[in-house]
Structure formats: C-alpha cells, structure tokens
Amino acid sequence: MAKVEGILEEIKSLTVVELNELVKAIEEEFGVSAAAMAVAGSAGGGGGADSPGEEKSEVTINLVEVGGNKMAVIKLVKEVTGLGLKEAKDIVDNAPKTVKENVPIAEAQEIKKKFEEAGAKVELK
Q1: What is the residue-averaged pLDDT of the chain?
Q2: Which helix (H) or strand (E) holds 124?
Q3: Are residues 64 and 111 in the same domain?
Q4: Helix 105-117 to helix 16-30 angle, to the nearest 10 degrees?
Q5: Distance CA 117, CA 28 (A)
Q6: Kind and range of the H or E run holding 63
Q7: pTM, whole model, 2 decimals?
Q8: Is the terminal CB of the chain with fewer CB neighbours within 10 Å at N or C?
Q9: What is the pLDDT of residues 1-11, one digit of tens each?
Q10: Is 63 in contact with 120 (CB distance < 8 Å)?
Q11: 3-state secondary structure of 88
Q12: What CATH number corresponds to the domain at position 112?
C-alpha cells in the first residue's frame, strides 16, 4: 500500500499537461482507456450499466456535500458553470445537486479536485 500512496503523491504534484501526458502513456503502454478505467473503478470493476464496448468520455459533476466553506464552493460553482451568484448559491443550498453535465473526464477530475480543496464532496457519474 505504501508504494501506491507514493505513486499517488507523485501524481498529485503533476501539472495538468504532465497528467495528460501520463494518461496517454498509460493508455498506450497497457492498451487501456482512462475513460474505461474511471467507469470500471466507479462501478467497482463491474462495468456498470454501460455496454461492454462502450467507453464513457464525458461525465456529470454532482455536488454531494458543501462542507465548511460554503462561500468558496459557491464561487467554484459560479466559475465552473458560468451562472450568476444567485443561481450558484441555489445549487449549493440544494445539495446534493448536479453542477455540470457532459464534462470531459480530465476536466471533470480537475474540477472535482478544486471542490475537494474547498472542502466540498463531489462525485462524477
């Protein structure tokens, strides 16, 4: 487990461009798709409801819990969605709520990271 944690720490230090290069290299090296790995991982490896040959390239970002820093989360919702302050506040106040749909997986993971840094809990579906 220590080896995995060390790898995760290294990945956390990568820039978005470096992370993208890493994903491409893993896809080429192992003949897999990051989208398929994300779907399999979120479904417990069972493949979920998607058909076996279908790869998911876009996801929905759902705000599950706001956490302790509500203002930061409202600002993030506003930034991510392009909505006004009132609309962003409504999403946060009514969590769990969908923040954005049809987001490319790499972008969604970056957005999720920002929300988690603000103390919110987000899930990608």
Answers
A1: 81
A2: strand 121-124
A3: yes
A4: 130
A5: 31
A6: strand 58-65
A7: 0.55
A8: N
A9: 788 888 888 88
A10: yes
A11: helix
A12: 3.30.1390.10
Q: What is the largest CA-CA distance in the chain?
A: 47
Task: Note whether 63 and 95 are within 8 A (CB).
Answer: yes
Counted domains in the chain: 2
- d(C-alpha 40, C-alpha 46), whole Å: 6
- Residue-wise pLDDT for 10-37, tens only, equals 888 888 788 878 888 887 887 776 665 5
**Chain-centre distance for alpha carbon 108:** 4
C-alpha–C-alpha distance, residues 96 and 82, integer Å: 19
On the question of pLDDT at 119 being above 80, the answer is: yes
Domain that holds residue 97: 58-124
Amino acid at 103: V
* Preceding peptide of 96 cis, ω within 30°: yes
Is 46 part of any domain? Answer: no
Residue 25, SS3? helix
